[in-house]
Amino acid sequence: MNFVLVPVPADHILAVMKWVLFRAEADHKGVGLNDASTTLVSLLRDAEPELRSWLGAIAEAAIRNVPIQLRDLADDRNLTTEELLEAISDLNHSVLDSDRELIEVSTETAIGVSGNTGKIVRLSMPRNFARLIRAEIRRQAPA
Question: What pTM, to 2 d.p., does this model score?
């Protein structure tokens, strides 16, 4: 059994636990990065330009380690947030197995300057998938 103990800052414990579970589930189910890679590459080959566009935007944000806001992405693509969330949910259920998500949706509470509170929905994806998506989109781009 290979393992390493590493101190993790309190702010990052949840993210590290998600990553460990993500990797453990992939190893346990026999669905590793290679199987997911094949699925993603075939998805991108058959995808409409609109889907490739917003997947590329989420991938770029994930690579930069800056989650993109759902509202911003929806506005840029002339979609409602509900339409985009539905498309993300459908994609998450169809691309990877049921326990893993290609696009992670997280909700945070934000406090405005005037003290008002609201919810911010952010989108991200695992960096290994983000790199794969970016590379495949670049490969498919016309020269």
Answer: 0.69
